Backbone:
């Protein structure tokens, strides 16, 4: 049943929306709009053309960019975000591996970052990501490969961000190890 499949995909939609928006409230609004549009246009969904997951993610992504285009003159900012920008950076606290990796990923070109987040963070196959991004699977593979190389290069660069030493394994260290394994696997192929 369409409604059950739609409901099952809401957590994935919410996670992707939060990655795009970086604002929980706007992300939840975006997911709600996506579900509403999908429900209103459920008769247009054709399983033969692709999976429901890809169709929903494409709706969400298109809606996000439509909102960004219309918000070019109006800038919504949270107080915490403004405080973070107005407070001078201090060298008293070293950056963690997590913040280094997030900054490396955030610095990627938009098309590379989108492909990387869909495949690595959201667990999409290259074909599913290609459907969402409306390009070929080969293009997605190329973007993810370049994004991985650039992000890992920036993560390990001493000139890009200060080096951090961590005394115990953190979740980001585990992600870093996994990304290295993926990188080695695809470099060897």
Residues:
């Amino acid at each position: 049943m369409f409604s059950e499949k739609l409901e099952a995909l809401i957590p994935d939609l919410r996670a992707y929306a939060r990655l795009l928006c970086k604002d929980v409230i706007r992300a939840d609004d975006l997911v709600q709009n996506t579900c509403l549009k999908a429900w209103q246009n459920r008769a247009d969904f054709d399983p033969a053309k692709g999976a429901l997951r890809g169709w929903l993610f494409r709706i969400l992504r298109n809606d996000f960019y439509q909102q960004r285009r219309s918000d070019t003159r109006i800038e919504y900012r949270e107080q915490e975000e403004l405080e973070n920008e107005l407070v001078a950076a201090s060298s008293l606290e070293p950056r963690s591996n997590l913040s280094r990796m997030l900054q490396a990923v955030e610095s990627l070109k938009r098309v590379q970052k989108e492909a990387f987040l869909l495949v690595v963070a959201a667990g999409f196959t290259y074909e599913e990501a290609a459907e969402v991004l409306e390009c070929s699977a080969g293009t997605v593979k190329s973007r993810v490969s370049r994004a991985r190389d650039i992000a890992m290069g920036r993560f390990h660069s001493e000139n890009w961000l200060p080096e951090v030493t961590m005394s115990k394994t953190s979740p980001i260290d585990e992600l870093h190890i996994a990304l290295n394994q993926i990188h080695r696997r695809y470099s060897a192929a």
